[in-house]
Amino acid sequence: GIQVEQSPPDLILQEGANSTLRCNFSDSVNNLQWFHQNPWGQLINLFYIPSGTKQNGRLSATTVATERYSLLYISSSQTTDSGVYFCAVNDNNNDMRFGAGTRLTVKP
Amino acid sequence: DGGITQSPKYLFRKEGQNVTLSCEQNLNHDAMYWYRQDPGQGLRLIYYSQIVNDFQKGDIAEGYSVSREKKESFPLTVTSAQKNPTAFYLCASSSQKNTGELFFGEGSRLTVL
């Protein structure tokens, strides 16, 4: 089945710093989403981005489907950005497959 | 407000007991899903349903059962056959399975004593 790899696994930032999270996938996809899991466990939708670039405030994402990767950019990070960021893509059966996540800690 | 409601948020159960987790959505979505998350891990698919009265096994269906009698509801039963049921369970829905955006409930944390 499709493999989804996220990097880095852990990231520690000082408040105000910028960061880039990466998601590589092993096959072509027609559905890719980024989620933020908050400390209470809820998964918040960030981007639905099977291709192209989108921006929402301090966050933006780019998916290059032909090269099988997606990037999530966080600018001017805040302590509330802490949590785990997941990338998910659909496989041949159209089941959404999740990466292992990137755990982000933003220190004040 | 439209959304997905899971209950209960926290549940404790003794070994050998079945427990049912509720998931209700008012988004008018056709597809619904159950995922399991273990500490420090990603999400794994237990079951999904694309339409009322139909559901399919995911990767880790053993020890679980579901029903889809109404479009809005997709309850998950964790049976005593599930060898390691302590986990965080997340319900999700999408307008359609192949390209729809996935939305999640707040999750149910099950602990087996």
Helix content of chain B: under 10%
What is the H/E order of chain A? EEEEEEEEEEE
> What's the rounded overall pLDDT mean of chain B?
92
Principal-axes geometry of chain B comes out as globular
Share in β-strands of chain A: over 45%
How many helices of chain A? The count is 0
Distance between the termini of chain B: 36 Å
Question: What value does the Rg of chain B take, in angstroms?
Answer: 13 Å
Largest sheet report of chain A: 6 strands, mixed
Distance between the termini of chain A: 40 Å
How would you sum up this structure, described in words?
- The complex is a heterodimer of chains A (108) and B (113).
- Chain A has 108 residues and is mainly β.
- Helices cover 0% and strands 57% of the residues of chain A.
- Chain A has strands at 4-7, 10-14, 19-25, 32-37, 43-48, 52-56, 59-64, 69-74, 83-90, 96-98, 102-107.
- In chain A, the strands form 2 sheets. In chain A, strands 2, 4, 5, 9, 10 and 11 form a 6-stranded mixed β-sheet that branches. Chain A has a 5-stranded antiparallel β-sheet with strand order 1-3-8-7-6, with no helix packed on it.
- Chain B has strands at 4-7, 10-13, 19-25, 31-37, 43-51, 54-57, 64-66, 76-78, 87-94, 103-104, 108-112.
- In chain B, strand 5 and strand 6 (54-57) form a beta hairpin.
